Amino acid sequence: MRTNSIRPTMTAQGWWIAGVVLLASGMSRGALGNPDLGRWGPVIRWPHVPVSAANLADGRIVTWVSNHPDQFPAGFTYTYAATWNPETGPFQEAAHPPHDLFCGHHIMLEDGRMFSNGGHHANPTSVFDHHTNVRTKKIQAMSRSRWYPSTVALGNGDVFTALGTGGGNYPEVGDRIALQQPQPHLKNWSSKIANAKERFVVLSAFSQGAVLDMETGLVWERSPSTKLSTWLEAIGDCYSRIVGGRLGWRLPTIEELASLIDPTQSRPPLLPRGHPFTKVQSGGQLYWSSTSLFSTPPNAFAMKPSDGTVGVNIKALREGFVWCVRGGYGHSPDVLSE
């Protein structure tokens, strides 16, 4: 049997037509005529390319695309979305700027809300409430970004998600999305692992060049850069960094950077005793974070591993070192406050 498929070169307009014709089948039984055979309804002018769709508990259909209503996603984080009532016909916009849902997964929760996770450049999770027509971002971010994950609702109300590009062999579970390793240990910021040899795992998959922090679920460079940079140079350095054959690094937030400090230590750098990191500066030098100072945008927060001091520094000065991180939620460096 021969199977036909839509060619990848089909234009955005072609996708739009295909989507609305398929969705026309969701019209009420009366609109379709014969309830046994059915028939196609008229083509509906959709406000965007309906890449994904879901039936809501109140009978409406919600559809969404990415950060462009009729083009392949590129650039900023945004989701064009709308609901459609098959009985009455009107559309209602339901855009979701904080989470790009393209390539994500969605499921229906027991209370009728729709849960979405993963997507384009995404480890957040979002919930769409059909009562308010509002999608709320980040019940809690996943520990890993996932493109095309598989997600199911569990009987106890938790959510289980696995696989997806970026997810590796580590599923996540619960309403507090938490990374699970073969030896289960929930990775959230309430955990505390005193033994550094248990807390930090040197990753052989990254050619020993990266370290997994079992306490936070973050993956750090094992040997941070020894070159001084401006804040903007530091941002770009992490974006282009390749460790263990992988991109996807970023400058950490000040909270993430400070999480490495053990204030009980007395010898610099104040990292947990027995840590596996190398080349960490210990003479009073500062490391940049991606966190800007809201009241003074030309400044950013930085940290000194020598004593754990957190302060601010002028972004334009080439006075900071760079320690890149992978995973976690972070924030866009051009956002001044979260």
Task: Walk me through the structure.
The chain has helices at residues 12-23, 29-32, 196-199, 231-240, 254-258; strands spanning 52-55, 61-64, 81-84, 91-93, 105-108, 114-117, 125-129, 134-137, 150-153, 159-162, 172-173, 178-179, 200-203, 210-213, 219-221, 286-292, 299-304, 309-314, 320-321, 325-326. It starts with 11 loop residues before the first helix and ends in a 12-residue tail after the last strand. It folds into two domains: 12-179, Methylamine Dehydrogenase, Chain H, CATH 2.130.10; 196-326, Mannose-Binding Protein A, Chain A (Roll), CATH 3.10.100. 10% of the residues lie in helices and 23% in strands. With 338 residues, it is α+β, with helices and mostly antiparallel strands.
